[in-house]
Design brief:
With 213 residues, the protein is α/β, with parallel strands linked by helices. It has a single domain, classed as Rossmann fold (3-Layer(aba) Sandwich). 54% of the residues lie in helices and 12% in strands. A 5-stranded parallel beta sheet has the order 2-3-1-4-5, sandwiched between helices. The radius of gyration is 16 Å and the shape is globular. The protein binds thymidine-5'-phosphate. The site of thymidine-5'-phosphate has 12 residues, from helix 4.
Length: 213
């Protein structure tokens, strides 16, 4: 958790095709309109190193075993936290991250079957223990999500994994949210975009310090 008065850290999570990008763009608009200048970033990515690691991780031509896959996501995350997220939070900014460590717990833990304690230990080292103040989980049946993602073009390395993998990680996200109900806002990603936008902004707005609403 970030310290009070030290910015606000928000993450968006969900299975493939859940509509994170659309909702992040709409949230960014609301934050700008409220006089904030949010830092919008994503995982993997968000730094020159992270962008290159992203290309490797999503390359459908590559075979990557579960542990190195997780370590690559963690490398991108460590660089992003140190170079982008913490400095922005220290300046009091709102940071919105498209995926964060919950994606590793869901995809590499529930999906690939890596041990949760191992994932949490390395994640603590990579992030210095930084977790979001609020995580929006856009929950969606992977059958629908993968169809949506397929309309965007050729599947990347993760999208082309089998349906049971995607079903496990979806359940993983739901379990993570149930374990931390104060941090997670779980929304049905099949709701209308405008309705989701309204619910997300309501949750974020109420977490902004009163002086900055
Ligand atoms: P994106 O397409 O939503 O930007 O995410 C990139 C892909 O990487 C997506 O399939 C989810 C996956 N991913 C993981 O498997 N583990 C992680 O820790 C993160 C951040 C993403």
């Amino acid at each position: 958790m970030t310290q009070p008065g030290h910015g606000l850290f928000l993450s968006f999570e969900g299975p493939e095709g859940a509509g994170k990008s659309t909702q992040i763009a709409r949230l960014a608009w609301h934050l700008e309109a409220a006089g904030q200048a949010p830092t919008i970033t994503r995982e993997p990515g968000g730094t020159p190193l992270g962008t290159r690691v992203r290309d490797v991780l999503l390359d459908p031509e590559l075979t990557i075993d579960p542990l190195p896959e997780f370590l690559l996501y963690s490398a991108s995350r460590a660089q992003l936290v140190t170079n982008v997220i913490r400095p922005a939070l220290d300046r009091g900014k709102v940071v919105v991250c498209d995926r964060y460590a919950d994606s590793s717990l869901a995809y590499q833990g529930f999906g690939r079957g890596l041990d949760a304690a191992l994932l949490r230990g390395i994640t603590a080292a990579a992030t210095g223990g930084l977790w979001p103040d609020l995580t929006v989980l856009l929950d969606l049946d992977p059958v629908i999500g993968l169809q949506r993602a397929a309309r965007r073009g050729q599947p990347d390395r993760l999208e082309q994994a089998d349906l049971t993998f995607h079903q496990r990680l979806r359940q993983g996200f739901v379990q993570l949210a149930e374990a931390e109900p104060d941090r997670f806002l779980v929304l049905d990603a099949t709701l209308a975009e405008a309705e989701l936008e309204r619910m997300i902004w309501e949750a974020v707005h109420s977490r902004l310090p009163a002086s900055r609403r």
